[in-house]
Specification:
By secondary structure, this protein is of the alpha/beta class. The protein contains 14 helices and 15 strands. The strands form 3 sheets. Strands 1, 2, 5, 6, 7, 8, 9, 10, 11, 14 and 15 form an 11-stranded mixed beta sheet that branches. It has a two-stranded antiparallel sheet with strand order 3-4. Strands 12-13 form a two-stranded antiparallel sheet. Strand 1 and strand 2 form a beta hairpin. The chain is globular and about 60 Å long. The N and C termini lie close together (10 Å).
């Protein structure tokens, strides 16, 4: 086992498929979309999204804590608690000074800002909550997790748009490899199911407009795809130095073996049309993992369901792999949770390796003939897998790629 391996010992998920790892995994295997009409978006051109069902912060975390939390932070905290419990860690089982937190966030939740802006617009400035900023600033997502876990190592928030969750995991890997931490609780969280994001992304032309068929709207790699679907969710992984995990007898779900990042340096929203930056990040991640393209058995694609992004990603995969391994895109089922997506999809990649089954890409009915990939659709595909890649790309040309190895 390489000294550059990082053990993944805990997983936590809060997604539109349900609260908890088991609910999300079973939802993915069913290959069903979670998109539905959202009452709070009524009257907008796009009035549907992928909400986390029955998510009640007060019920999950207690009223005393939840009253001060933004929705984005609440989801991250629930996912972090599940991941830490899954890892068999917690107070008394670690040195809190050697435990870090790194979480990726794009905008955090905008619902709180929208509520406070409405008060200003109505001339009710004295009704603005003094907690509006502490609840909403992105760094409080990691800050709240650190306070809840009572860990005092590096506490970081990273923001690389829709690559944020994957960037957070790559940053956590670097903290472990440089011996700055023994354990890092890492991932991402986001809530985009509110009016400003829905109106803005619609005006940009980025969202699917299938209001008559929300469940069929997100169609990664499909010939009829017309945009992504807004979503919310959080994914958190517990990462450990290999020696630390071994010393306490932990059984890893998988290993985070490589990380690569790049910038397209091309356009502020559109990807490089030939997938140049994505291919460079892929190559860097494989090099960091010390493996060849032919050693990769599966790719969990960024797969947003937009015309340009899916095409560019397919071209990047063709450049690096020549004959790319089987691909899936979970946004067909879960929608696009921006800063949370890269971490959610990383956790799904770990589960794919652990279970040796690739979930299908929901809503893939007729694959775009220009996308020359083996995209898994309609049913789960059992497959022996030793290594898998998880892609995440974002506005500003941000690219982050993670390589995972199966636990032996």
């Amino acid at each position: 086992m390489s000294a550059r391996e990082v053990a993944v010992t805990g997983l936590g998920l809060v997604t539109p498929a349900g609260v908890g790892v088991a609910a999300t995994w079973q939802g993915l295997l069913r290959g069903e979309s979670t998109a539905a009409t959202e009452p709070s978006l009524a009257g907008l051109p796009v009035d549907f999204c992928c909400r986390v069902p029955h998510f009640d912060p007060a019920a999950q975390l207690g009223r005393r804590l939840s009253w001060r939390l933004d929705r984005c932070a609440a989801m991250a905290l629930v996912a972090a608690r599940e991941a830490v419990k899954d890892a068999g860690l917690g107070a008394g089982s670690w040195d809190p000074v050697r435990v870090g937190v790194v979480l990726g966030v794009g905008t955090a939740s905008m619902e709180r800002y929208e509520a406070e802006f409405t008060k200003l617009a109505e001339g009710r400035a004295t009704d603005i909550s003094p907690l509006a900023i502490p609840r909403s600033v992105p760094n409080m997502v990691a800050g709240e997790v650190g306070m809840d876990l009572q860990v005092r190592g590096p506490n970081l928030t990273v923001s690389t748009a829709c690559a944020s969750g994957a960037t957070a995991l790559g940053t956590a890997r670097q903290l472990l490899l440089t011996d700055a931490c023994d354990v890092v609780v890492a991932g991402g969280s986001e809530s985009l199911c509110s009016r400003v994001p829905a109106a803005c992304f619609h005006q940009m032309g980025a969202l699917s407009r299938r209001a008559e068929d929300p469940a069929g709207a997100s169609r990664p790699f499909d010939a009829d795809r017309d945009g992504f679907v807004l979503a919310e969710g959080a994914g958190v992984l517990v990462l450990e130095r290999l020696e630390h995990a071994r010393s306490r007898g932990a059984r890893p779900h998988a290993y985070l073996s490589g990380y690569g990042a790049s910038c397209d340096a091309y356009h502020f929203t559109a990807p490089h049309p030939e997938g140049r930056g994505a291919a460079e990040a892929l190559s860097a991640a494989l090099g960091d993992a010390g493996i060849e393209p032919g050693d990769v058995d599966h790719v969990n694609a960024h797969g947003t369901s937009t015309v340009l992004n899916d095409r560019a990603e397919a071209l990047a995969l063709r450049q690096v792999f020549r004959r790319p391994p089987p691909v899936t895109a979970v946004k067909g089922a879960l929608g696009h949770s921006a800063g949370g997506a890269g971490a959610i999809e990383a956790a799904c990649t770990v589960l794919t390796l652990a279970e040796q089954v690739i979930p299908p890409t929901a809503n893939l009915r007729r694959q775009d003939p220009e996308i020359e990939l083996d995209v898994v659709a309609k049913a789960p595909r059992p497959l022996p897998m030793a290594a898998a890649v998880s892609n995440a790309f974002g506005f500003g040309g941000q690219n982050a790629v993670l390589v995972f190895r199966a636990a032996s």
